[in-house]
Structures are given as structure tokens and as C-alpha cells.
Write a structure and sequence with these properties.
The structure is a single chain. With 159 residues, this protein is mainly beta. 14% of the residues lie in helices and 39% in strands. It contains two helices and eight strands, in the order H-H-E-E-E-E-E-E-E-E. A hairpin with a 5-residue loop joins strand 7 and strand 8. The protein is elongated.
Length: 159
Amino acid sequence: MNAKTQCAFISLILLVVLSGCKPNGPNNQETIPADLVNNPNSASSNVGKGSLPVIQFDEVEHDFGRIIEGETVSYAFSFTNTGKSDLIIGEVSTSCGCTVPSYPKTPIRPGEKGVVKIAFNSNGKRGYQNKSIVVASNTQPNTTVIRVKAQVVNPASEK
């Protein structure tokens, strides 16, 4: 082998070795640390579920019945943390801007109770209304859906 061929051969070997030592994964993306795979809130793991908080609502649906269009009605959904660690509600979102939630912003200790309040404004609504409220918390699963419903009527148009 001449010197030129040896130099090309050594360069090729170095290129292969150095490209194999990169800390990045395919397509030059960062690799995920192995400890994230063991997240107890992942779908495939049962690690630590017994020590997580559990949100237990007294009821998950409330029917306001028949209400007059334009009326605002409210309801308080009571819940208990039946788990073994503090329950933290991160967010409560609704399916419509006509439904406004309020919820505790501080941790709920095991065994303690709390309330998610919902106000439904029926202005501009008619007929059967069914609104979903999603409570996102540090539980497994991390969302719970509660609902309010009502039959909104306009007495003037029913005559």
C-alpha cells in the first residue's frame, strides 16, 4: 500500500469511528435519558401508582334542568383526595366560553375535600346544552371529565 492509499484508508476509519461516537440519535436528534422512560405517569408503567393522589368527585355530572335563556346558573362539584400524596389541580378547561370554572390553586392533602365551581351563562343558547369540563391534575390518569347540562328555553318564543 502506498502512502496516499494508507492516508485515505486511515481517514475513512477515523470518519467511521468518530461518527459512531456521537451522543445524538438518528437524524441528529437528542437522545432521551433513560430515567424519563421510568416516569410513573407514563401509560406503560405501574411504578408508584399507589403513592399518587386520587381525585374522587361526589358526582361527575349535574343537570340544571330547564332554565331561561340569558340566566347564569352555577354548581359546585365536590371532590376528595383519596390518594396518598398532595393533589394539585393544574388547570380546568371547558368546552365553551359560556362555562367558567374556578378551582383550588393550593395542594389538597390526602383525605381533604375541595370544590370545582362551574358557572354556565345561557345567554345566546337555546335547546339542550351539554358542556364538558376537563380537570387536569397530578393523578393517574391526569384528566377527569365532569359535565353540566341544561335545557335552555326562551318563554317568549314558546307562546
